[in-house]
Amino acid sequence: MSVERHIAGMLQQIARQQDIVEIAPQGSTAKAAALAHVAEQYGYTYGMAYRTGFKNSLVQVRMYRDPQPGARVREAATLTAHPQAGNGGTVPGLEQSSLKPLPEAVAAVAVLKDLITFDVMAQYVADRSQKVKCYLACAVLTGILLIDRSPVEAVASGGAVALLLTVAFKVGASRRGKIAQRLTDAGFLAVRDEQGAQRFLRPGQQLPGHTNPFAA
Questions:
Q1: pTM of the model
Q2: Exposure string (b/e) for 145-159, b if CB count within 10 Å is 16 or more?
Q3: Which helix (H) or strand (E) holds 80?
Q4: Which helix (H) or strand (E) holds 183?
Q5: Which 3 state secondary structure label does DSSP give 14?
């Protein structure tokens, strides 16, 4: 899908003043962050992100309509400054016909990229029970290999898989920890959602609910 179609599709959702806008660009989290930044200029705020689609190829971002007065002011200013957005005109914060942020929007898009990446990585960061299951699977694999291989080969193969899993767990946790630190430094607050997962919110923001999800 072209850049113009991505933007036009999102702005059509926004024009209907939907409470929730879904963004699902094919490709990197950087594209999703750029579109999320545009949505923020129209009075929405970041809600959550996760991977979906065939082989988890899509980053799905959910934006919520911000009920606070400042969001309506921001929306009105954007509509005035960019009347042809989605129809070939300029788009707030982005270069013409591109998802590349303008210099003044680079920092804001980077923060959104961190929020998106942190939430998406939650699908791949194993908790204690998941790690136990993975290591048990390695033990089972070793047992299966003992049927037609020597004990040395079976143990070496199972151990290699366990080592790869250990490295993957540590790399994922380290990367997510660095993102969490950047979000904390940017003024975001760490909270736990209903499932116990860690999330980051702006001061005064609440986790999404059924009504008025981001009321102070």
A1: 0.77
A2: beeeeeeeebeebbe
A3: helix 69-81
A4: helix 151-185
A5: helix
Backbone angles phi, psi at 176, to 5 degrees: -65, -35
Q: State how far the Cα of 147 lies from the Cα of 131, in Å rounded to an integer.
A: 25
User: Quick one: tokens of 102?
Assistant: 């303008």
Cα–Cα distance for residue pair 61/49, rounded to 1 Å: 4
Q: Per residue of the chain (216 residues), what is the pLDDT tens digit? A: 577 888 888 999 999 888 999 998 776 899 999 999 999 999 999 999 988 877 777 889 999 998 888 899 999 999 999 999 888 889 999 998 889 999 999 999 999 999 999 998 876 664 565 656 666 776 776 777 778 777 777 667 766 766 666 666 666 677 888 999 999 999 999 888 877 788 898 887 777 653 444 443
Distance CA(20)–CA(18), nearest Å, equals 5
DSSP string computed for 113-157? HHHHHHHHHTTTS--HHHHHHHHHHHHHHHHHHTTTS-HHHHHHH
- State the amino acid at position 110 in one-letter form: A
Q: Compute the distance between CA of residue 103 and CA of residue 25 in angstroms, rounded to an integer.
A: 22
| CA 179 centroid distance within chain | 12
Which residues, other chains included, contact 210 with Cβ-Cβ below 8 Å and sequence gap of 6+? none
Q: How far apart are CA 30 and CA 114, in angstroms?
A: 9
* β-bridge mates for residue 143, sequence order: none
Two tokens, residue 42: 């129209």
For residue 170, give every residue at least 6 positions away whose Cβ sits within 8 Å of its Cβ, in sequence order, or none.
none
